[in-house]
Amino acid sequence: MKTALIIGISGQDGSYLAEYLLEAGYAVHGLVRRASMFNRSRIDHLRLATAEHQDRLFLHYGDLVDVTSLRRTLKKIAPHEVYHLAGQSHVGLSFEIPEVTCQENGMATLGLIEILRDLDSPVRLYNASSSEIFGAPPASPQNEETSMNPVNPYGCAKAFGTQLCRVYRQSYGLFVCNGIAYNHESPRRGENFVTRKISLGAARIKLGQQTVLELGNLDARRDWGYAPEYVNAMWLMLQAETPRDYVLATGGTCSIRDFAIAAFDELRLGLRFEGRGVDEIGRRTDTGEVVVRVAARYFRPAESLELVGDASLVRQTLGWTPKITGSGLARLMAKADFELLAADL
After folding, report:
1. Which of 30-39, 225-234, 237-246, 252-261 has the lowest mean pLDDT?
2. E-assigned strands of 33-174?
3. Which of 156, 331, 314 is closest to 254 using CA atoms?
4. Measured at the alpha carbon of residue 251, what is the angle toward residues 249 and 257, in degrees to the nearest 5?
5. Torsion over CA: 179, 184, 188, 194 (sign)
6. What is the distance between the alpha carbons of residues 271 and 293, in angstroms, rounded to a whole number?
7. Which of 40, 85, 114, 138 falls 20 to 30 Å from 15 in CA-CA distance?
8. pTM score
9. Same domain, 247 and 259
10. For residues 325 and 338, what is the distance between their CA atoms, to the nearest angstrom?
């Protein structure tokens, strides 16, 4: 039986990856922070699931920046694979807490690979990199050879961690893969991310729990994919014979405006965008219009340009191809949030 450690198991990607690995027969260990209130809602269904899963799912208290506790946990578990998915993951927030962002996404990655270098048995590591390392790229779409040019503290920290993994792979022969993942979303996404804010807002407005949705830059475009499909790529990368970096992307983009229109259309709601020079009508339906207000406070000091990935390498090498993208993802998330809230009512 293979053993895997997921650092960040309680997050969106970590919870889907835990499901995937348990179904594949792994013993799954997860690192969680000790806090006064538990934040494990994404994995509660696994912790309370069948005895078969409970016997192969183990949680350990620890912290990504506490190298001592992390070293002890790794020696105790002796995993075959480690998935490094933890850290401050919100781009906008990285402008507010840049030091924490760099510590968790940069220096903590260094601490982890130093531990792996000293272990007696070889371990395969997946490091969650990000399309934000490209920031303002010289060309589009971007691939594994595109130069890094981050435009926010989050992208800078991820670029540092990504380069460290490459150096340790080349210098010490560690089996380390960087997954340069573009935006991937799901109904488990945090509410402070714009995609989930839109899908939850649409559901709440449909149910009469909210009246207005406020957003920032409607013209920002992202390469949005579906998180459960991306964790499959993470696993495939660690099964390959040779470690390397891969861009994980859909190859297409969708604007925040179009994402919102699709989410609201799924629930048969029309939209009207107002504010910051915007005055336009979205898709109309027989249920009337909902106001989406463009608010200046949601604009970032610096915005990444159009980021769209070229995933040709992972498709040709590992056979991975995402299926759910853009507006289809928006519809899926809006439907899931509406059903969740309606069930609670």
Report:
1. 30-39
2. 57-61, 81-84, 124-130
3. 331
4. 95
5. positive
6. 10
7. 114
8. 0.90
9. no
10. 20
CATH number of the domain at 289, please: 3.90.25.10
Q: Checking DSSP bridges between strand 57-61 and strand 221-222, what pairing results, if any? A: unpaired
Co-location of 312 and 168 in the same domain: yes
C-beta of residue 238 within 8 angstroms of C-beta of residue 177: yes
**Pick from 31, 40, 234: nearest CA to 115:** 31
Question: Do 261 and 238 share a domain, yes or no?
Answer: no
Structure confidence by residue, pLDDT tens digits, 280-301: 444 444 445 677 888 777 776 7
Is pLDDT of 23 > 50?
yes
> What percent of the chain has pLDDT above 90?
71
Rounded to an integer, what distance in angstroms lies between the CA atom of residue 338 and that of residue 345? 11
User: Which structure tokens are listed for 298?
Assistant: 């949601």
> What single string gives the DSSP state of each residue in 238-263?
HHSSS---EEE--S--EEHHHHHHHH
Domain shared by 242 and 95, yes or no: yes
**Rounded Cα–Cα distance for residues 320 and 324 (Å):** 13
CA distances from 212 to 209, 293, 326 (A): 10, 7, 23
The model's pLDDT over 182-213, given as tens digits with 9 standing for 90+, comes to 999 999 999 989 999 999 999 999 999 998 89
Do 12 and 59 have their domain in common? yes
Region 131-153 average pLDDT = 94
- Is residue 182 classed as helix, strand or coil in its secondary structure? coil
Task: Give me the numbers of helices (H) and strands (E) for the chain, helices first please.
Answer: 12, 15
Residue for token pair 């949005």:
224
Distance from C-alpha of 244 to C-alpha of 125, rounded to nearest angstrom: 11
Cα separation, 88 vs 197, whole angstroms:
18
Rounded CA gap, 132 and 6, in Å?
Answer: 22
Among candidate residues 71, 82, 73, the one with its CA nearest the CA of residue 179: 82
Half-sphere exposure of 165 (CA within 13 A, CB side): 28
Task: Looking at the structure, tell me whether residues 262 and 235 fall in a common domain.
Answer: no
**Which of 31, 37, 90 shows the shortest CA–CA distance to 60?**
31
**Are residues 314 and 212 part of one domain?**
no
Greatest Cα pair distance in the chain: 66
- Domain enclosing residue 337, as ranges: 194-218+255-302+332-344
